[in-house]
Amino acid sequence: MPPDPRTYLPLRPVDLQLLLALAEQERHGYGLVQTIADRTDGLVTLEPGNLYRVIKRLLVDGLVAESERRPASELAGERRRYYRLTALGGRVLAAELRRLEALVSSPAVRALVRRWAT
Predict the structure, then answer these.
(1) CATH of the domain at 72
(2) Which domain does 71 fall in, by range?
(3) Which of 28, 56, 58, 68 is 20 to 30 A removed from 47 (C-alpha atoms)?
(4) pLDDT of residue 72
(5) What is the total count of domains within the chain?
(6) 2-36: per-residue pLDDT in tens?
(7) Does residue 106 form part of some domain?
(8) What is the pLDDT of residues 74-104, one digit of tens each?
């Protein structure tokens, strides 16, 4: 029986960002750093050491996998490792997004936003 995605929740913010980036397409490390920085308007920036620690943990958990595919333009270049979302990673991402959606759409949270928004 596959693991229950909810056992991985809540995701760490950087894990969520990484899984979101990989849900769109396979990416190499630098591509992940750039995508996350762009998506968060620079609020989340990852140093290579931190990025690869996160990737290693997500690989061990089975949420991401190293891809065997490489874009044709890079076949002659240096070897970049590409990563992809696994089926389990997709289910965990969907469960986390449902959890966050329920949180932010609750009447209590909406009232807080209205109260504190300027």
Answers:
(1) 1.10.10.10
(2) 5-93
(3) 68
(4) 57
(5) 1
(6) 899 999 999 999 999 999 999 999 999 999 999 99
(7) no
(8) 555 567 899 999 999 999 999 999 999 999 9
